[in-house]
Amino acid sequence: MFHIFQYQPLRLITQNSSSSMCLKLMLSRPVAFAQIWKSWFSSHSLLGKKNIILMGPPGAGKTTVGRIVGQKLDCPVIDIDDDVLETTWNMSVSEKLQNVGNEEFLEEEGKALLKFSASGSVISLSGSNPMHAAGMQHVKTNGIVVYLDVPTTVIMSRLQSKQMDRIVGLSPGVSLKDILQFRKQFYKRWFDIRVLCGGDIAAEVVAEKVLDAVKRYQDSELETFISTRSGRSGSSMEEDSNKLYFSDIVTQGLALDGGLFVPERGLPKFTAEEWQSLIEATYIERAQVILERCIHPADIPASKLAEIIETAYGENFSCSKIAPVRHLAGNQFLLELFHGPTASFKDFALQLVPHLFAYCIPRSCNYLILVATSGDTGSAVLDGFSRLHDTDKQRIALVNFFPEDGVSPIQKSQMIGCQKENAWSVGVKSDFDFCQTAIKQIFTNSDFTGFLTVEYGTALAAANSINWARLLPQIIYHASAYLDLVHQGIISFGSPVDICIPTGNFGNMLAAFYAKMVGIPIRKCICASNENNVLTDFIRTGVYDLRGRKLISTLSPAVDILKSSNLERYLHLIANEDGQLVTQLFNQLENQGHFQLRKDLLGKLQQDLVAGWCSDEDCLAAIHSVYSTTGYILDTHTAVAKVVADRLQDRTCPIIISSTAHYSKFAPAILRALRIAEINQNPLSQLHLLSSYSALPPIHWGLLETLKKTGNGDHHVCAADMSALMSHIETLIQNHFM
């Protein structure tokens, strides 16, 4: 019997209670850029003779792919059906199934698997092996389970053409599609690595994908992150010890040099065939596939990631499609991002990120999350972190800073109503830019952060879009929107679309550009600004100029922003990761209030982005016009994007407009746009007034409930002073953790 021990990727995580960082120790350095797979595999022999275990539905090609992988690695190949089951039973699998029936077959198959042992082999499981828990646990202990994920429609076509009759569960009244869908839950439970397999992909190509995936699984040290204000890391031992991984940067939030974290080797690329294999998938399935490729299993294993995604999106969204795409008019489509619990696109990240954060942080350290919001982030982050398990709430708390007089009355009431025992709101007597800048300064104040760690055992972390983990869920919905248009027959895969997004902090726009980078055919990203149009001016001229600008309070407060944090990540990308240049530009912005791009960089930027802006008057007119012609109500931010899209699109391809919030969050503006009645200043009265008009679409399901809870709820108010903010932070830590 071979020696059994649980296989893990090559990174060992040691947690230190006195720091928010996780220390990563490398157990092995793989042969760089191995020329042949055999030599690569042998270089990892210190891990023991592990098996590569191929799993998937019947017809996935496990046997053929297994033989090819075995040939490339020059190792034994074992097919469970042919080499184990039929040898053990002395009869064919189909005969056994016919003799004993479905339930007894699964039990007998599992018993045979429990008696099976192998090492250093490629093993092709049967399609039903994963349905026997004990048998799978036994096999998985000494191997890496690779899931060949083939679309159900492709599997059905293959099986029907082969007239296969030995499928467990197939009987009169039970369809093949039902069986395949039922089995997915078992495949998802056991795999370590997923390999997407399109309809016409050759077995040789699948085999190479398997080997690439196994190598990635073992080479976790390669998926590191750098700051936008530094260069690529080198290869010295000192630099190796300072490498940062996903689990580090989720908790750290902002780099120590003031920059933002980005993946050192860029985002993963999906082939056209891989995207097409997701056309039939649900939103949750698409989310898991994309996040598996962006988050290494050494940071979060696939099974845990699946659990987190299901928790985030399974029941917390009112629409089963999570992020549906709706036709508006002509070639314009709306991506509805307001079906989450707090009625804005922020829910997509902030229902997910708290669970990622809770999994990644050391168990022996307390964390206080700092957030700055211009409106929608506040209620979303409060709601998201309040849904953590009780044990996590005891060690994770959150404080949300917002401009006291710079958000809508309903947004403010939401933030007060969403406060929980571990999550609080603090109004600041200033604007969003002050709140955001203050948080950045607090993070880079080593004296203050060090004091909190030593005195209270508490580390600070960020949940704003400066946190890399906030961007990943946004990439998903932009990709999913495109796939939905393909699924609906609006376009064929490969046809371009334009994207128009109301943007102030540039995070949502950056996520759309990242979706383009990973393979979604987005042609132009259109930035829509309100009267705080610094981004529009910058994209048109290459000059980012804050001199003499004052923030204007508009009807679309979520984009009332002058300093666009995530622009830094985009400039780092188009500048070929020149951290020195990025540092120079943003230091100049901070110290002199402006900077100018070089002509070559401006040229690159204008190939990707176009921009326009919209006045409050045009915003209200758009809301009225769209409702009059379609019966649909845009919120004020979506109306800004609609106006800009009308002006800038060339109508040669579909355009997807991000509908970033539900209209009922901005009731006074909607009542004014629709010319309904005199506006009452009480937020709850405003919602009741909107809901009283039966001709209008229903108000958001969560808003009334939250506002009813607000009642006479209170919140802290703070002066626009750094010392006052730090004092608030220390007091909240004392009250919650001590």
From TrEMBL:
Domain Threonine synthase N-terminal: 239-313
Needed cofactors: pyridoxal 5'-phosphate
GO biological process per UniProt: amino acid biosynthetic process
Keyword Amino-acid biosynthesis part of the UniProt annotation: yes
CDD domains assigned to the protein according to its UniProt record, in alphabetical order: SK, Thr-synth_2
Pathway the protein takes part in: Amino-acid biosynthesis
Gene Ontology CC terms, in alphabetical order: cytoplasm
Sites bearing N6-(pyridoxal phosphate)lysine, chain numbering: K346
Source superkingdom: Eukaryota
UniProt keywords, alphabetically: Amino-acid biosynthesis, Pyridoxal phosphate
Pfam families membership: SKI, Thr_synth_N
InterPro entries reported for this sequence: P-loop_NTPase, Ser/Thr_deHydtase_PyrdxlP-BS, Shikimate/glucono_kinase, Shikimate_kinase/TSH1, Thr_synth_N, Thr_synth_N_sf, Thr_synthase-like, TrpB-like_PALP_sf
GO MF entries: pyridoxal phosphate binding
PROSITE patterns from the UniProt entry: DEHYDRATASE_SER_THR
Family, similarity comment: Belongs to the threonine synthase family.
UniProt-listed HAMAP family: Shikimate_kinase
Protein name as catalogued: THNS1 protein
UniProt source species: Oreocharis arfaki
